[in-house]
C-alpha cells in the first residue's frame, strides 16, 4: 500500500467516527492554543520590558546616593559633582552627564487636580532617555539659566489635566506656583508610567525642593566598550570629591543598566519557559487522549486488520496507517488551536498591567514549533497503538467478534 493510500484510509477512519475524533482533537486544540498564547504573551512582556529599558537608556549609568545607614560621612550628590564628571581630563570615557531631581507635587488646571512626580532635568537628558516630543518643545539651556517656570507634561498627565484641550501655552499650578506648559511628551510607559512632568532642574531646586543637592546623575559612556571605564572614572572622581578614605565604602551607588537589563531578560526568559511548560501540560493530556482513542480504535478494528493482513497488507502498512491517523488527528487539532490562539491574540490587543503594555507576539517560530509539537505528540501517542495493531495475528484477528 502506498503512502497516499494510507493517508486516504486514515482520513476515512477519522470521518467514520466524527464525534469521537472531534473530542480527541479537542485536547490538542486546547493544548496548542494554551502553549501558543502563553509563550506569545511571555515574549510580548519581554519585548515590552526591553523597550522600557531602552527608553531609560539601555547602556546608561545612574549614580545615586548610597542607602547604607552605616556610612557616617554620607555626602549628597550636587551639581558640582555632575560638572566634575563632564571634565574630559578626569572622565574621558563619559560623553553625556545629566543631573536629575524628583519630587511628588500637586498639579492643578481649572477643576482638575493630580498628584504626580515632577522631575528636574537638563536638556542633555534627551541624549540618555528616549523622550519623544508630542507637542511644543523641550527644556532649553535658556530655561535652565533663567530658572523659568516652564514644564513638559507626560502623556497621561496631559490627558488627565486637559482631556482633549491642547495643553501647550496653558498655565497650570505646580505646588501652588504658576507654570507654563511648553510641551507634551509621547507615551513612554515602563516602571514610572506616563503620569509625570519635567521642569528645568534649577527651577525645581529654587522653587520646589530648595537646596543644592540632587538625587541622581545619569551618565552615558562614549560607546558600549567604554562603560566599564566610565564606571571606574565615576568612582575615582566622586571618591575624591567626597573625601572618601582608601578602604572606606562609597557613599554613592552606580546602577549599570546593562546588568539590570541582562538580569531582567534572564528572569523573563525563565518566566516564558515556565508559561510554556504550563501550556505543555494540556498537550500532554491531549496526547494521552489520542493514545487512548487509538487503542480503542485498534480493539474495534481488530477484524478489519485481520482481513487486510489476510489479503496481503504488511505490518508496515498497518503501522503506517495508524501512525498517520494519530498524526492527522493531532495536526488538525494543532492547526485549529493555532488559529484560535492567533485570533485570541488579535482580540486581546494590548494588555495593560500597571504601567506596562503587553501585546501577544505570535512569531513564525512559535507557529512552526506549535505545529511540529502537535505532529510529534500525535506520532508519539500513536506509536504504541500502531505497533500493537501491526503485531496482531491475522488468524486470531479474523476470529475476533
Could you describe the 3D structure shown?
The chain is of the alpha+beta class and 401 residues long. It folds into 2 domains: 3-53 and 262-399, no CATH class; 76-241, no CATH class. It has helices at residues 3-16, 18-56, 79-85, 141-146, 155-162, 201-209, 227-241, 257-300, 302-310, 315-348, 364-390, 394-399, and strands at 60-65, 77-78, 94-109, 112-121, 133-136, 150-153, 171-174, 177-185, 196-200, 213-214, 216-221, 252-256, 350-353, 356-359. The strands form 3 sheets. Strands 3-4-9-6-8-7 form a 6-stranded mixed beta barrel, surrounded by 4 helices. Strand 7 and strand 8 form a beta hairpin.
Offer a concise description of the structure.
Helix content is 54%, strand content 20%. With 401 residues, the chain is an alpha+beta fold.
Secondary structure elements and pairings:
Layout: H1 3-16, H2 18-56, E1 60-65, E2 77-78, H3 79-85, E3 94-109, E4 112-121, E5 133-136, H4 141-146, E6 150-153, H5 155-162, E7 171-174, E8 177-185, E9 196-200, H6 201-209, E10 213-214, E11 216-221, H7 227-241, E12 252-256, H8 257-300, H9 302-310, H10 315-348, E13 350-353, E14 356-359, H11 364-390, H12 394-399
Parallel strand pairs: 4-9, 6-8
Antiparallel strand pairs: 1-11, 1-12, 2-10, 3-4, 3-7, 3-11, 5-8, 6-9, 7-8, 13-14
Essential attributes:
401 residues; alpha+beta; 6-stranded mixed barrel; two-stranded antiparallel sheet; 12 helices
Domain unit count:
2
Quick one: biggest sheet?
Answer: 6 strands, mixed, barrel
Roughly what percent helix?
40-55%
What's the number of helices? 12
| Sequence of secondary-structure elements | HHEEHEEEHEHEEEHEEHEHHHEEHH
Strand order of the largest sheet: 3-4-9-6-8-7
- Overall form: elongated
